[in-house]
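Appendix B, Record 12. Input sequence as logged:
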Amino acid sequence: MIASMKKYIYLILSLMVVFPSMAEADLNPLLMDQMKHETRKVVGVLSSNMIMLDSNERVRLIGLKEMDTPKPKNIERDKHGFIVEDLTDPRLKLEEHASRFMRDLLIGERVTLKFDAQRRASDGYLEAYVYLEDGRMANDIILREGYADLQLRPPNMKHAKQLRDAYREASQEQRGIQGRW
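Logged structural output:
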């Protein structure tokens, strides 16, 4: 019995050396099921596709592309030293609306993160579908309201059809970005 346990442990350790990306959850189906979702509180919105959790973890919402907004090269200031904003660029206004929408939707909410085939991106950030307590998917809501462009990246394609449909609806209804602010 002890000899067979040692062989089993040796096999697991060997697999982890050969396949370093395999975590403990990949070897144990019971742990793997627990790793497929996590409930946390949202404490911040960092960009049009990324949130901050109460655990200080950053989560990229699967299917959402970060908005490309121009960064000012020269900051203009008034006589009191306050920054004068250029409100003539409609993309800045849209980014502001998108950020406000995401903050209103997510900050302070307890959300459930559901993971797809790949839990972390190559840059180390978590990638997840973010569900509100009422069961709605925030990724879908943000796309459907037109506050993000669609960006699907394999292997996380579980809800690709739903996200495409949400994006298509925003485009047909000309909401947000699709409305050409």
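The two ends are 70 Å apart (CA to CA).
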